[in-house]
């Protein structure tokens, strides 16, 4: 059973702290002390380069001698940071007699206090301690919290500090509720997007008792594997009031949306009709105007064959705040999970993304001469239905019939299937597979040959 500690944050501004040791371990501690405004006093016969520079710049002072208990007089804290365990313990005992709290680096048993693992976001500090019993676990927890807290979260704390006076006029309980409403509303996201004016507007609306303004998050959910979501995507998914999603969004990803958010499906209906784009645009505007935080969740990246631009144009025209979160597009996801690099020094110096979706008149609207080129990878979205014609046209425009080509269906998911062949054989190989009828991406180019060596993802 480890010791129990009393957690505190100590104000060390201008306070003297004795650090015994002049090497890297001492330097690490001194860097932290300087951040809190403390005045480190180093006891050492030799200093490393960094500490010598700090002393030269008067950021720390030096007692160039061996350790003496008298050096502890007047100190707020002490840190024993030499590589001599016996000396460290001597420092700790002397500090104990002098009533100075002492930390011995990597020796919690001899320490009167220990320093936690920390995550910092501006004025916010999250401290993690396992009481010295499992520092590796503390580090792991720290990594998790690092990932959870957006880098710019300090801005939110600073904003709240700056606007405290504005809210102070309200009774205490109302103040607390107001800040809670602010944190639950679009204000923090506006700040994280760098829009302070909009955040002030949100705060003023709350102070004036007006209902919160809605906003829209256009979020790319990636190609299928939930692990490929960005931190930002996940955060917005967990704070929306309503989500509009389409057929490419897998149940596993939808599961990560806030439980009590309303779910609206806008993809292909059973009768195979898609909700017209204009209706989706109008719905986004309507919901946001009703004060909702609306998540528009799209497969892959919203700006790659995703019509994200059209949705945003409508929001911009209606003056609705929005933000756009990129996602991993099917090309990147399928390439990585099938072991087919999109470019390669020896095989492809460029890569081109096209859609194989036929126009209303049934034609494929592609510049074949720009596609049928050696040294280039062609990625075809929505190309399964027209696969035979696509391959034939590429051959007709100059690529050899044995030019490598692959089709990846439901890439990055546990149902991923990859069919490899050539422009001549791929259409037949795919047509013979009745089990391939999901979202599919075609990759054409010599890079396909690398799959034999680079494949790693083997869904069960
Ligand atoms: C309307 S587009 C949307 C593309 C999306 N915005 C993106 O960046 O990936 C839909 C097409 O993307 C491709 N696609 C999306 N997810 C896929 C996946 N997991 N595996 C293979 N192809 C996929 C298919 O070609 C599908 O027909």
Quick one: CATH superfamily of the largest domain? Tetrapyrrole methylase, C-terminal domain
CATH topology title of the largest domain:
Methyltransferase, Cobalt-precorrin-4 Transmethylase, Domain 2
Instruction: Tell me the overall shape.
Output: globular
CATH class of the largest domain: Alpha Beta
Uncertain residue segments? none
Radius of gyration: 30 Å
The total strand number stands at: 17
Span between N and C termini?
43 Å
Residue share in helix: 25-40%
Tally of helical segments: 18
* CATH architecture call of the largest domain: 2-Layer Sandwich
Strand order of the largest sheet: 3-2-1-4-5
Main sheet properties:
5 strands, parallel
Give the bound compounds: S-adenosylmethionine
Instruction: Classify the secondary structure makeup into a structural class.
Output: alpha/beta
Average pLDDT taken over every residue? 92
| Strand coverage percent | 15-25%
Count of domain modules: 4
